[in-house]
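User: What would this chain look like folded?
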Amino acid sequence: MTGLQSWVAPTYDALADLLASSPVQTWDAPSLCEKWQVRHVVAHVTMPARLTPEQFGAEMAAAGGDFAVLSDTVAARDASLPVAEHLDGLRSPLLHAWQPPGGGAAGALSHAVIHALDVTVALGRPAVAPEEAVTAILDELTAANGAWFGLDLTGVRLEATDTGWSWGSGEVVRAESGSLVALLSGRTLPDGRALPRS
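Assistant: Here's the prediction, encoded as structure tokens.
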């Protein structure tokens, strides 16, 4: 297991622990994902724990090969599953070992970290991913210069307020590392901040 993959399980386990100890209405709170509540985000990330490759293929075919359509369909349908099932999914060894097609360990970690932050940043809670994992995703997103999420990072300097991490030059955007990952993932923070689109 690579270093990147080894951070996936702690991220999902910590998210499960946070949600298990939170009031039940937390599941209905809005996430950073547009139109998705916390339960939709969890239903989305735990798909690999619920769907066999054959079931996933059938879902993909039903969605006309469009992963965004599949994601919305499955999240809308499975969001109403019992909380215990969502928590089991987050703690599933199947999910912890899963890698997105063609994405490898880096893709698995970015999926875990970004979606966990969709929940924790929206709830005003600290990041659940290991600090090194968050920094690794910051490095990955900035190495792509915003291309992954259609951002224009020209003239932008990012500075983490909780670590020594920084990147770029120009107008300074300061936030906790997790919030910077969310910004670099095209999200709008609860305070209304967002990075410019390309």
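The mean pLDDT is 95. If you want, I can go into more detail on any region.
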